[in-house]
Amino acid sequence: xxxxxxxxxLLALVTVGIVAALIDSEVSGTGAENVxxxxxxRTVTTEPRAEERAEQRxxxxxxxxxxxxxxxxxxxxxxxxxAPERDSLGSGFVITGLVRSAAGxxxxxxxxxxxxxxxxxxxxxxxxxxxxxxxxxxxxxxxxPTVPQFGEPNIHVAxxxxxxxxxxxxxxxxxxxxxxxxxxxxxxxx
Length: 190
Known about the structure:
Elements: H1 4-24, E1 36-37, H2 48-60, E2 88-89, E3 93-101, E4 112-117, E5 128-132, E6 138-143, E7 148-149, E8 152-159, E9 167-172, E10 179-181, E11 184-186
Parallel strand pairs: 2-6, 3-10, 3-11
Antiparallel strand pairs: 1-10, 3-6, 4-5, 4-8, 7-8, 8-9
């Protein structure tokens, strides 16, 4: 005797299991959070007086530590050391961030940061560059918009020079994003 209702119950249980797994899982599966932003690039301005007061308060406090940025799975995908220094990799998408020291949480000037991503003009190995942080610890590079690679558009940001421990980050963005912010906190090698 056949039981067609049993097949229906089985399919319903499998569907519920799949939905539960999807709700509980992360989008990327690699620990890569989405850091993209749509709209014009925003800049934060601070009155000089407020900056001076903040600096005075920082100098009065005991030194603090910031949690170092940890590499995430997939951060080294298609990594090639010593990306050439470039001002730009195209236009339409901006990668920016703040680089600071874990000891004291101070911005780091002149640090070389490497970025790479897949765009319509080429793969991650073709679209790579090094940029240096400014006196405020910030870096910025404009690129062509990223395209999906293995199902999702993503960017890579890394530090791998000798003064601090290496950090390799992979972050997901949306296709309509115009900007991604990836901040790094670097710790000295032990």
